[in-house]
Write a structure and sequence with these properties.
Layout (H helix, E strand, L loop, with lengths): L4 E5 L3 H11 L10 E7 L2 E4 L21 H9 L5 E5 L4 H5 L1 H6 L3 E3 L4 H4 L2 H9 L7 E2 L11 H9 L4 E7 L2 H10 L10 H10 L8 H4 L2 H14 L25 H7 L4 H13 L2 E10 L4 E10 L11 E8 L7 E6 L3 H19 L1
Helix pairs in contact: 1-14, 8-9
The structure holds NADPH dihydro-nicotinamide-adenine-dinucleotide phosphate, the ligand N[C@@H](CC=O)C(=O)O and sodium ion.
Length: 357
């Protein structure tokens, strides 16, 4: 059988870590997958004959740029089964998944956009696919932590999800664990800590997508839908934004980051109010399936709670279900960063390759 062909879109923090992991994947199958296409926003590398390409040389490539529609046609003609790995956060790429899937091209991705936009796209992805095209997106929630697989297993085995709550953002976790730790020893100004989160690769390409609560809202939308709620999208329930009103019109991420220090006092007051109540402030998400209610925002939490005890960029997902009613199922650990996100992508890729081989 011809080896599985891999097409990679996006070679940033996650994409680069993914390439390193791809080189040493431990597969049950004997034939190694072959990378036939790789791209970043303005460069692509591929050959007309579907030869193996070195994704790390994309910047020196002179391959003519293919549109998403051209890429669908190109990949549809490949000599083996194809898996598209989308390591971007791009909506247009996400919108093209149904076209790829209809051509029998499987999709593996950490990109949340396809699964948290309108229900039509969700239905197109999951209901109108070719039977041989697979979709895996573990890293779209909690990076490599087994969140999607756990939730799917619970549902598939007949459990009923009552509620999923916790801290679903590595960026928000890092910001509040650093800015307002339980011992009261805040380590720096809010804007400085936001820059650190960006430099560590925890934030979205544009950190405003984290600070406005939408990254967490997207994760809630994905979890809610998998748990059985028909959530229309990430803007269909209450989401608290931490973007100062005066910066909502900033024209670029760079302008936003430049001006953010002027608003450090806003976050200090949240921290002080929580301290006065003997608590700490954290960015908490709740998908209450039983009550059909989803919400995202700041909460004052007890200092001895599991949420307050999180470290670094850790996420926590607490699953309350019919089976796990007296003691919830908890998934916790690092929830952002190139390596741990790429691990979820690589593990998904292994599952896809083994099902396709
Ligand atoms: N970082 C993390 O901790 C986590 C990230 N994720 C998700 O992983 C994905 C990647 O994140 P990350 O690597 O941090 O982001 P980066 O900004 O580091 O990388 C994004 C990559 O996508 C490329 N890109 C963007 N648009 C296009 C396009 N239209 N066509 C081809 N390439 C494109 C960029 O190109 P160029 O290099 O030219 O700019 C860049 O290489 C996102 O969806 C994010 O939400 C999920 C969980 C955790
Ligand atoms: N920006 C996100 C990355 C993972 O989804 C986060 O901080 O959690
Ligand atoms: Na995950």
């Amino acid at each position: 059988m011809a080896p599985v062909c891999i097409a990679i879109i996006g070679l940033g923090g996650v994409g680069k870590a993914f390439l390193n992991q791809l080189a040493t994947l431990k597969l049950q199958t004997t034939s190694r997958p072959v990378v036939i296409f790789a791209s970043r926003s303005s460069k692509q590398i591929y050959t007309k004959n579907y030869d193996s390409v070195d994704a790390t040389t994309v910047d020196s490539s002179s391959s003519p740029l293919l549109s998403l529609s051209d890429l669908t046609t190109y990949l549809g003609g490949a000599p083996g089964k194809v898996i598209l790995v989308d390591n971007t956060s791009n909506q247009d790429v996400a919108n093209a998944y149904p076209s790829f899937l209809r051509k029998g091209i499987s999709v593996v991705t950490p990109n949340k956009k396809a699964f948290s936009s309108n229900m039509q796209l969700w239905d197109d992805i999951f209901n109108s696919t070719s039977p041989s095209a697979l979709v895996y997106h573990e890293s779209s929630v909690g990076a490599g932590l087994p969140v999607i697989s756990t939730l799917k297993d619970l549902v598939a085995t007949g459990d009923q999800i009552t509620k999923v709550q916790g801290v679903f953002s590595g960026t928000m976790s890092f910001l509040f664990n650093t800015f307002a730790p339980v011992d009261g020893s805040g380590k720096g100004k809010w804007s400085e800590i936001v820059s650190q989160a960006k430099d560590a690769g925890y934030t979205e390409p544009d950190p405003r997508d984290d600070l406005n609560g939408m990254d967490v809202a997207r994760k809630c939308t994905i979890l809610a839908r998998l748990a059985g709620l028909k959530v229309a999208g990430p803007d269909s329930f209450p989401v608290q934004s931490l973007i100062p009103k005066q910066l909502e019109s900033a024209s670029s991420a760079a302008e936003f980051m430049d001006k953010l220090p002027q608003f450090d006092g806003d976050m200090e007051s949240y921290k002080d109010n929580a301290a006065k109540a003997g608590k700490v402030v954290r960015f908490v998400a709740s998908v209450d399936v039983a009550a059909n209610e989803v919400k995202v925002g700041l909460e004052m939490v007890e200092k001895d709670s599991p949420i307050a005890a999180l470290k670094g960029s850790d996420n926590i997902f607490v699953f309350h279900t019919k089976r796990y009613s007296s003691s919830p199922l908890v998934v916790q650990g690092s929830g952002a960063g190139g390596e741990v996100t790429a691990m979820g992508v690589s593990a998904d890729l292994i599952k896809a390759i083994e099902r396709l081989s």
